Amino acid sequence: MSKSKFNGVDPQEVLAKYGADTARMFILFKAPPEKDLEWDDADVEGQFRFLNRVWRLVTDYIGDRPETLTSNDPLTKAEKDLRRAIHGAIKEVAEDLNDDYQFNTAISEMMKLSNALIAATDLTPSPVYQEGIETLLLLLAPFAPHLTEELWHRLGRTDSIHQQSWLQADPTALVLDEITLVIQVLGKTRGTITVPAGADKTQLEELARNSDLAQRYLAGKTIKKVIVVPGKLVNFVIT
User: Is 189 helix (H, G, I), strand (E, B) or coil?
Assistant: First the structure.
């Protein structure tokens, strides 16, 4: 954009139509600070829609949450998965902001977190879901300060969201309890099974041998060799 080409964008028109938060989000998401920015109405609309999704997500949560949140100890698998998404977002956003000022990828992580929350609305009664809602707003606050401040107060907070301490990722929340193990026969992938993350080679081979998937392809065959790559695959060499 340049004055000589008469293709400039009047900021006041953008602010009047979309608001300051959308304008900020578009600028930060469109390109890293060191690169030129090319205005694109479609990208502005995209950020506007994202902020509207956040608004609906939080206000729907406020309307649906019970007066007393239930505490499940230990957490269910769904709660663990959501908490992993929450703290994964905290970790990734912190790295994007502290290391390289990669605002665009930080916003992408917030979009992922919002999608995880939208997909887990059945967990509304859980404190983990509340943690996710608050985390999304706290991460988004530097980017969309007006919307997040309003939603923060609608959650019942009396202090400003911009006076909160920056979030710290919980390493224990990022640890996987289960992993997906690939089953191969003669080097060809036949499918996957879910196994405990801490299983050793012997346990992985046993789990793979006993799985319905392996039994289907090993029936009537002689196993010459089993190759186990922990955390990745089990390959059966047969005759």
Answer: strand
